[in-house]
UniProtKB/TrEMBL annotation:
Gene3D superfamilies: 3.40.50.1400. InterPro entries: CbiX-like, Sirohydro_Cobaltochel/CbiX. Pfam families: CbiX (PF01903). This is Cobalamin biosynthesis protein CbiX. GO terms for molecular function: lyase activity. It comes from Mycolicibacterium fallax (Mycobacterium fallax).
Length: 250
């Protein structure tokens, strides 16, 4: 069974390279090839990759930190477009306590100290389910950091139902008395949004989660659990299909 890692896509070459390296790290851990595809900006797309392997059962791992529109609507549409009929899609990477611990590690690398204010910076989403996952991540990070962690968007909300821009949140936290503000980047790869975080006025900005060991481990676990589920389903189907022996009459 093959594995396809599907990311959003970015024009930033470092971001593209990171996804390729994530697939390579997964491949080394799983001991099998891992293909890549992108939903936007560049190719190949998942429909193109899946159409090229129509007879190979494939597990698709969405390289997304929350299950927003791209995971719940865009990706299934691309899979249907491919015509591939033996695809299993795993959950997104988040929410997961593993990601919150990875965020804590990243802000520590950026110079965070106990007592510093922390802002959780995300790309932005109008999806209510994804926003709920962000609140869960912020709550877990708050517990780890020892103080409440507010959420800020790197991109403005289109309908006013999202969170304020990261820079606005940084200013608000300073106004509330914070001496130092550190941004926890809840982004997967380098790109335009990460650059916006660096321009937000914070004292320190953590790097994207990228190739953090927790991200690699989570991606592999998503794939392994999906494979176990497929195999379990086959065993159950085989048991259901097994003929029941007639009882011996005495």
């Amino acid at each position: 069974m093959g594995t396809l890692l599907v990311a959003h896509g970015t024009a930033n070459p470092h971001g593209v390279a990171m996804i390729g390296e994530l697939a390579a790290r997964m491949s080394a851990r799983l001991r099998e090839p891992v293909r890549t595809a992108f939903l936007d900006v560049l190719g190949p797309g998942p429909a193109e990759v899946l159409a090229s392997i129509p007879d190979e059962p494939t597990v698709v791992v969405p390289a997304f930190l929350t299950a927003g529109y791209h995971v719940r609507a865009d990706l299934p549409a691309r899979i249907a477009e491919s015509g591939h009929r033996r695809v299993t899609v795993t959950p997104a990477l988040g929410p997961s306590p593993e990601l919150a611990r990875a965020l804590l590690g990243r802000i520590a690398e950026a110079g965070w100290r106990h007592g510093d204010a922390v802002v959780l910076a995300v790309a932005g989403t109008r999806d209510r389910q994804a926003q709920s996952a962000l609140r869960s991540t912020a709550a877990t990070l708050s517990a780890l950091a020892g103080r409440r962690v507010p959420i800020g968007f790197a991109a403005p909300s289109q309908d006013g139902h999202g969170y304020p821009l990261v820079g606005e949140v940084v200013d608000r936290v300073r106004a509330d008395g914070a001496d130092r503000v550190v941004i926890a980047s809840f982004l997967l790869a380098e790109g335009l949004f990460q650059q916006r975080l660096r321009e937000s006025g914070a004292d320190a900005v953590a790097e994207p989660l990228g190739l953090h060991p927790s991200v690699i481990r989570l991606a592999c676990l998503r794939r392994s659990h999906a494979l176990e589920s497929v195999r379990s389903g086959r065993r159950s189907a085989a048991l259901r299909a097994r003929p029941v022996a007639e009882p011996h009459l005495r």
